[in-house]
Write a structure and sequence with these properties.
six-stranded antiparallel beta sheet, 6 strands
């Protein structure tokens, strides 16, 4: 987990938000990581993260069984073609999956229909894919930022 977070942190313009006790973020988010393109280092307004790492079940998201020690999940927003290539399905045609399976790219159990994929405990089969997906999501976030603000604009 730390290696993936460090990799994203090294992307040009990346902001990795890691809420902890004492921050102004809900306790539920403590220990998780949220990835943004933010060249000014400020959390963007009106923009969702392009990727996250979650370390526990959320009230509406328990299918990955993240509460046992050592379990965590990377979530990445991808384009439609990438989603279909990775999952064999369109985002709105997900079917049933075992979202607790480790080291396998799957549609996100809650946000799959919105183009999110996930991997529980990335390992030998998926770690390089996860990094590639996070890089592509970062580059897409940068392109959206530049369309709004101009190249290099803040």
């Amino acid at each position: 987990m730390e290696q993936i977070i460090a990799t994203v942190h090294a992307f040009d313009g990346a902001l990795v938000l890691r809420p902890t006790r004492g921050d102004d973020f809900p306790e539920l988010a403590w220990g998780d990581a949220f990835f943004y393109y933010a060249p000014d280092g400020e959390v963007p307004r009106n923009v969702q993260p392009y990727g996250t790492v979650v370390t526990k079940d959320y009230p509406d998201d328990t299918a990955s069984d993240l509460d046992p020690p050592g379990r965590w999940r990377v979530n990445v927003h991808v384009d439609r073609a990438t989603f279909e290539d990775l999952t064999g399905k369109e985002p709105r045609d997900l079917g049933h999956r075992d979202h607790a399976t480790v080291d396998l790219v799957l549609p996100h159990p809650v946000y799959g229909a919105l183009g999110w994929v996930c991997v529980v405990n990335p390992g030998g089969r998926t770690e390089a894919t996860v990094v590639r997906l996070l890089r592509a999501a970062h580059d897409a976030a940068r392109a959206r930022f530049e369309r709004r603000h101009g190249p290099g604009g803040v």
